[in-house]
Amino acid sequence: MKRLGKLFGAANRARLATYLLALWKLFTHPDTPRAAKLVAIAVLAYAVSPIDLIPDFVPVLGMLDDVVLIPLGIALVVKLTPRPLWEARLREAEAGRDKVPRMLWGAVAIVLVWLVVLGLSGWGVARWLGYL
Q1: Is pLDDT of 100 > 80?
Q2: Is residue 30 within 8 Å of 84, Cβ to Cβ?
Q3: For residues 132 and 127, what is the distance between their CA atoms, to the nearest angstrom?
Q4: C-alpha distance from residue 120 to each of 110, 125, 130, 131 (Å)
């Protein structure tokens, strides 16, 4: 049973890599609608960023964000994209051996989000305690 779980895990990772590559191809395609491009690049930045919005050491939520946020983002991009355009990019991704480029700015964006959240939390606590 353990081997079966490893097999399905590898298959899911390979399928996810194909979808991420399709998102990249969709982002770089000139006919892609602007909203779909913005969501696609946000999903890609989050997926390839080494920093998670919710760290993995947080029980349950740490793993759940990867399992929920990335597929929801992909589903939103598919909804925002004309069907023939998405299917063509998905076929290209399945046929190609390309890789999604590393996006350092994705990690920077996640760090900035964390800094803003921590700053606002600190400001709220200070105000609640009467320091401000």
Answers
A1: no
A2: no
A3: 5
A4: 15, 9, 15, 14
